[in-house]
Description:
- This protein is of the alpha+beta class and 441 residues long.
- The chain is built from 12 helices and 11 strands.
- It has 2 domains: 3-165, no CATH class; 175-433, PPM-type phosphatase domain (Phosphatase 2c, domain 1), CATH 3.60.40.
- It has helices spanning 3-8, 19-43, 52-78, 84-109, 113-116, 118-172, 223-241, 246-260, 336-339, 350-360, 366-381, 401-409; strands spanning 184-191, 199-207, 210-218, 267-275, 280-286, 292-294, 300-302, 306-307, 321-324, 330-334, 390-397.
- Strand 6 and strand 7 (300-302) form a beta hairpin.
- The longest helix is centred in the N-terminal third of the chain and has 55 residues, at 118-172.
- The chain is elongated, with a radius of gyration of 36 Å.
- The two termini are 57 Å apart.
Amino acid sequence: MRVGELVRTPRQVPGRLSGRTVGLWALANTIAGLLIGAGILVFAKGEAINGSIVLMSAVFANVVGFTAVLTVRFVLPRYSGLPAYIRLPLAFATLLGGGVVGSGLALLVNPLIIVYQVRLALMVVTLNGVLALTVGALTYAFDVMRGQIESESTARARLEREMEVARTIQMELLPKKFPSVPGLDLFAFSLPARHVGGDCYDIIELGQGRLAITIGDVAGKGTPAAILMANVQAAVRALSESGVPACQLIEKVNSLVHRTTEDSAFITFFYCVLDTTTGHLRYVNAGHNPPCVLKPDGSKEYLDRGGVVIGIMAGSGYEEGETVLHPGDGLVLYTDGITEAMNPDGDMFGEDRLERVLALHRDASAREIEERVYDDVKRFTSGAAQADDLTMVVVKMVNEPAEDEALSAGRDRQTASGGPSAARGAPANGDLRGSALVELS
C-alpha cells in the first residue's frame, strides 16, 4: 500500500478509547521512553544530572505517543474530506504541538538540564520527536488498513449474497422437472465453476410427442456470461414454442446476440427437436462440441452439421442435420468444461477418455452415465480447481417394456427435495447440485 493511498482514504471518527487500550498504550510508551532515556544516559557516559534524563524521556514519550494516537483518531478523520496537502501539514503540526508540550512537561522533571546539559536535552527532544512522527505514521497506516479491510469484508459479503441470488435465478431457468415421456430416459446436470456460469441446457415440451433439447456455452464465466446465456435461453424458448424450424431459430438467435452484445461475445450452441414417437431428430450445431449418439453395438454418430458459433457474424446461415434414434440408442450432449477439465499436471480429460467412459457404460441409464462421467472427471482432476462449467444432458431411447416400467417407477427420484431449482440432476451424494439434493428411494 502506498502512502498516497493512505492519506486519501476517508475515515469516520472512531469511538472512544477504552480504558484498557489507554493503559496498555501508556505502558508501551513508558517502556519505550525509559529505553531511549537509558540509551542516552549510556551514550552520554553518565553526564545527566541524577539520571533524571531517563524519567524525562519516559514522560516525553507518553506525551508524544498519545499526541500521535489522538491525531490519527480525531484530527485526521475529522478533516478526511480535505486535500492531502492540507491534512498532512495539519497532522504534522499537531504532532509538533504535542512535542513542544511534551518537552515542557519533561523539562519540569529537572529544569536545570536545559542550563547544564543542553546537549542531552536536545538529544531527548530530537529522539522523541522522531519517535512521535514514526508512531503517528505507523498508527495512521494501521488504522487506515484496518478500515479498508473492514470495508472490503463488508463489500465481499454483499457481493457473495448478490452472487448467490444470481445463482438461484440462473438455476431457476433450468428445467424444474424432466418430462415424463414413455420410452424415454432423461437426465442432466450443470455445475458452474463459480457462483454463476455461462453454461445452460433446456428440455422444452412442444406437444405432439416432440421435445426441444438444447445445450450451450458462453465464452467466459461469471455474471456477464450468465446474463447473456439467460437472454439466449429465453429467446430460444419463445422461438421454439412458436414452431420456427431449427435452422431459422438459430439464425434469429445469432442475429439477436450479434446485435445486442460486444463483438467478443459468442456462444457455442446445439439445438435439436426429437419426435419421441418415431425417434426422428432434427438439429443444428452452432460450433458446439458435437453430441454423440451411442449405439448398442458400440458404434457412434456425431452430430456436427450446422454452422459457426452464435454472435460472431451477422447474417450467418445454418444447415439442418437429421438422424434417427432407435430403441437402445443414447444421445449425449456436453460442454467443453468436461473434456477440457485439467489435472494438477495440466493434462486435459479429453474426448478420448470421455468416449471410453461412454462406451463402457452405454447400456446404463441416463443418470448412471452422467454419474460415471462426473466421477471420472473428478477422479482425473485429483482435487484441482474447476476451471470451467460442467454441463451434460443424456437422452436414452428405451428398448424394452420392462425397462420403461422401471424408469416410470423411478421418476420421482428425478424430482428434487430442495425446491424447484434443485431438479437439475445429481449423483446419489448430491455433489453436483450443492444444496440442491435429489430424492432417492
